[in-house]
Amino acid sequence: MSVVRFLVAVAILSFASPAFAARCGGDFNTFIANFSAEAQSAGVSAGTISQALSGVTLDPAVLAFDRRQRYTFNKSFEQYVSTRVGAGRINGGRTMLQRHAALLSKIEQQYGVPRQILVAIWGLETDFGKGDMGKLPVIRTLATLAHDCRRTELFQGELMAALKIVERGDLTLRDLVGAFAGEIGQTQFLPSSYIKYGVDFDGDGRVDLRHSTADVLASTANLLKTSGFKMGQPYDEGSANFDAMREWNRAVIYRKTIGYYADKLMGR
């Protein structure tokens, strides 16, 4: 799902990123040194910076993938949904609804986001955490994209957020792996969204969006609630809830697929 999540990165962060001063391009090590100084000024400890950025190198595969992306869907909704929502995924989602019924009830009560929407997103992104969450070191991926001058401010913001995830103790560097735009975890949060919306719902003192089902689902609900999603209201195209899901993904075809899958989970 890296293409879909990358759409979110470009759409959201293009207007939400803070300004960063590290100059893009040129010598990569110089860029990292300048960014490291900026991160320390932003409150990231020298230990975290050293641990994360010492010896980091450019990843040519990330740049190659980034340059061949096309940030549009070239299929109709019917074509796209037929490849994403089949009988196996519907049955798997219904199993998750049953297995996590008590947890989903608590999340619904606290955040006002229906369980079928959360399970639909979870299933579409990583097959309920069983699928591919990405295997690339997030720090290296984001440092590569931040150094590249095409969207340096956007990805410098993401790199700073990734350092803060490590600084907070949410994930170790070993667990900070993801997809080609730095997406992390079972519902593929970008680091800035991880920081902004992440919830420690299991109460273990950290936000773990790779291993904790409770944190994953509650954080996804928190994102949608903060964006204006309302319980008990329709979520089909044209509705206020459909618009609220733009914070999750701006692509209409993908939001329609979430709604279609959610309805199938409920037998509609």
Automatic annotation (TrEMBL):
Organism superkingdom: Bacteria
Keywords carried by this UniProt record: Signal
Keyword Cell division: no
SUPFAM superfamilies: Lysozyme-like (SSF53955)
Pfam families per the UniProt record, alphabetical: SLT_2
Residue ranges constituting the Transglycosylase SLT domain according to the UniProt record: 28-235
InterPro entries hit by this protein: Lysozyme-like_dom_sf, MltB-like, MltB_2, SLT_2
Segment forming the signal sequence: 1-21
Keyword Metal-binding tagged: no
UniProt-listed CDD domains: Slt35-like (cd13399)
Transmembrane regions listed in the UniProt entry: none
Protein's name according to its UniProt entry: Lytic murein transglycosylase
Organism: Bradyrhizobium aeschynomenes
